[in-house]
Task: inverse folding
């Protein structure tokens, strides 16, 4: 048996979750899971290309954090960005169409899987190079702080959530931005999705101190670890961090211990992770866990959850149909969007 | 009219634009309390506060990316590179995010960002402080690049760059900050995409920019006495190149000499030569002549440094040879 890091315990005794909130989070997680499964199918059927990184298994992190935020807050992602986009409210049609390279995609077919953007939904983007989104997210948080403190706009209390992986936590931009965010008390959540593997590099082989959340302390910043397979634990940590940021009390580093159920990308043969390790994490499927909780707590019935599963299934089918039927980008617009004057 | 030093012209530009638009702010190393490495932002923090004139830690790639994020969400940052060479450490954020993000996002976001600071070869500053980053950045889509050369154009161009909705790399020259010139008292901006005809002439087109403009001017004084009549064009816009102005001149003179401080390999002159050959080959009476810096790390020793960059007598010689059809 592999030696797994002990997942932090979380008591649901303090959880205050309404029926509607429970179903919203559940639906978001199911959307993420089914969307990614459909991506794998479409990739193997030759409908999408390039590097496609799926989020299966990590849904509790995206849904737990983003559904604890307001719609005018900002989200910044990585190359594994489909589900962060969906949680942020970007319609599945637009995300699927982008993956198909269509003109109706959220990035007009110019970005692809690793470059999903939506100004309308305050999605600052998917960033393909490891760590390069961290400074950008820090800049969005700086902007909120600037408006509130330098320009005196009391309504500028938007918070930014910045997602990245364990691999990014060894890059200089991570440390540089933690320093600046703590220094200026920026309203930001740095959310590390520690899924144990940076492609084939095991976290423990790359990292002298594998407990990433502890690195917050040297910056005088709040740092917490959460069970990233438990959406209620993630949500509780996010709510506390959002409140801290909104109150002007500065950033939080959240380390969510999680696992990707598929390879790094659809091109990854996934030969290095052991069956025992995978089994350990498969048994902690965050969607099943939330479903059990909702039913046990009488917050939802199995019929309601099944109804959501079906609704999402047809929403995904609709997204695929939309993507298939959408036009390719106009070749005469090859140069469009290089400069700001191209609207 | 007020006689103004170039660094103060830049300071006036920033001051006026910050007063005009509260979304404009400055960030970089030592821009606040210290006033900037060449005093371009001196005392602005006293007027605008420490958030609008933000002293950053020494973390070039991260504070550049931070400015990109701030620009995406509606602010208009001006980054000062303490020395432009330091921005090699920010290459990823400048290329991937400042330059390409608008396109990859399908037009979702604008990046109104100015990255400015001292570049070029100074006096015995050593190789790392004597770089010409315009050569390295010219291939990045989405960026504009501007080089100022006089107090007058420095002020008008910087104001325009700040108002531009695109990311603009704005090159100053470390040896030009103390140039003096009378500037208009009234508000003015200059187009950042247009070359400046410094001297009209009929014989040969000399294309130059930044400090080399002044080397060319020295050479022209000698040449005039000997009866030569060169046309001198300051490129101003290094990306995109203003081929309207360049083309009009070459159609008149049919001869071209490029004088630059870039290294010969892969520099602005290399791109310019290729573009002139692509577009105007039939107009040329002879090959484009390129005077550029040597392809070496700039040496510390003063005599060796002078041998590395183009000197006015070489420009005089080049004009004479071109006019004698000896190239």
Result:
């Amino acid at each position: 048996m592999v030696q797994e890091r002990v997942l932090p315990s979380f008591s649901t005794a303090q959880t205050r979750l309404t029926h509607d909130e429970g179903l919203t989070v559940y639906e978001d997680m199911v959307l993420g899971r089914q969307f990614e499964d459909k991506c794998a199918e479409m990739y193997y059927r030759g409908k999408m290309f390039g590097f496609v990184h799926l989020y299966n298994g990590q849904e509790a992190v995206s849904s737990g954090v983003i559904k604890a935020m307001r719609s005018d807050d900002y989200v910044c992602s990585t190359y594994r960005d489909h589900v962060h986009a969906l949680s942020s409210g970007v319609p599945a049609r637009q995300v699927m169409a982008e993956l198909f390279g269509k003109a109706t995609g959220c990035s007009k077919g110019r970005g692809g899987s690793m470059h999903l953007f939506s100004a309308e939904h305050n999605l600052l983007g998917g960033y393909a190079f490891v760590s390069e989104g961290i400074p950008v997210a820090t800049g969005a948080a700086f902007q909120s702080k600037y408006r509130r403190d330098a320009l005196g706009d009391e309504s500028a209390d938007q918070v930014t959530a910045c997602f990245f992986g364990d691999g990014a936590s060894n890059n200089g931009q991570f440390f540089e931005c933690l320093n600046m965010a703590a220094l200026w008390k920026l309203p930001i959540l740095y959310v590390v999705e520690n899924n144990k593997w940076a492609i084939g590099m095991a976290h423990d082989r790359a990292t002298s101190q594998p407990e990433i959340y502890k690195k917050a302390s040297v910056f005088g910043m709040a740092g917490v670890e959460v069970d990233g397979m438990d959406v209620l634990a993630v949500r509780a940590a996010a709510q506390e961090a959002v409140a801290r940021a909104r109150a002007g009390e500065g950033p939080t580093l959240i380390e969510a211990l999680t696992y990707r159920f598929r390879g790094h990308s659809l091109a990854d043969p996934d030969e290095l992770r052991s069956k025992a390790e995978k089994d350990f994490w498969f048994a902690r499927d965050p969607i099943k866990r939330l479903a059990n909780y909702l039913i046990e707590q009488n917050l939802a019935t199995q019929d309601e959850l099944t109804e959501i599963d079906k609704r999402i299934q047809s929403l995904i089918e609709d997204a695929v149909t939309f993507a298939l039927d959408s036009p390719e980008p106009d070749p005469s617009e090859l140069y469009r969007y290089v400069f700001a004057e191209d609207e | 009219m007020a006689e103004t030093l170039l660094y103060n012209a830049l300071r006036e530009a920033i001051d006026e634009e910050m007063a005009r638009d509260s979304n404009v702010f400055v960030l970089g190393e030592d821009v606040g309390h210290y006033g900037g490495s060449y005093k371009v932002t001196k005392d602005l923090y006293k007027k605008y506060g420490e958030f609008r004139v933000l002293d950053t830690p020494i973390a070039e790639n991260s504070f550049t990316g931070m400015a990109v994020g701030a620009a995406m969400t509606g602010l208009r940052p001006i980054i000062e590179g303490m020395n432009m060479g330091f921005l090699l450490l920010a290459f990823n954020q400048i290329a991937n995010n400042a330059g390409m993000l608008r396109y990859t996002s399908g037009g979702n976001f604008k990046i109104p960002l100015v990255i400015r600071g001292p570049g070029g070869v100074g006096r015995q500053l050593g190789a790392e402080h004597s770089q010409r980053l315009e050569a390295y950045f010219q291939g990045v889509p989405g960026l504009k690049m501007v080089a100022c050369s006089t107090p007058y154009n420095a002020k008008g161009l910087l104001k325009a760059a700040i108002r531009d909705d695109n990311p603009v790399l704005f090159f100053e020259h470390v040896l030009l900050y103390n140039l003096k010139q009378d500037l208009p008292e009234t508000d003015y901006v200059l187009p950042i995409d247009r070359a400046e005809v410094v001297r009209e002439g009929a014989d040969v087109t000399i294309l130059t920019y930044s400090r080399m403009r002044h080397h060319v001017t020295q050479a022209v004084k000698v040449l005039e006495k000997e009866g030569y009549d060169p046309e001198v064009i300051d490129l101003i816009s290094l990306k995109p190149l203003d081929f309207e102005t360049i083309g009009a001149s070459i159609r008149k003179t049919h001869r071209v000499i490029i004088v630059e401080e870039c290294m010969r390999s892969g520099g602005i002159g290399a791109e310019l030569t290729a573009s002139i050959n692509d577009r105007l080959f039939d107009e040329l009476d002879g090959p484009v002549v390129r005077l550029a810096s040597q392809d070496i790390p700039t040496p510390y020793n003063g005599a060796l440094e002078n041998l590395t960059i183009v000197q006015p007598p070489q420009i005089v010689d080049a004009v004479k040879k071109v006019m004698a059809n000896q190239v």
Remarks:
- The first strand of chain A starts at residue 74 and ends at 76.
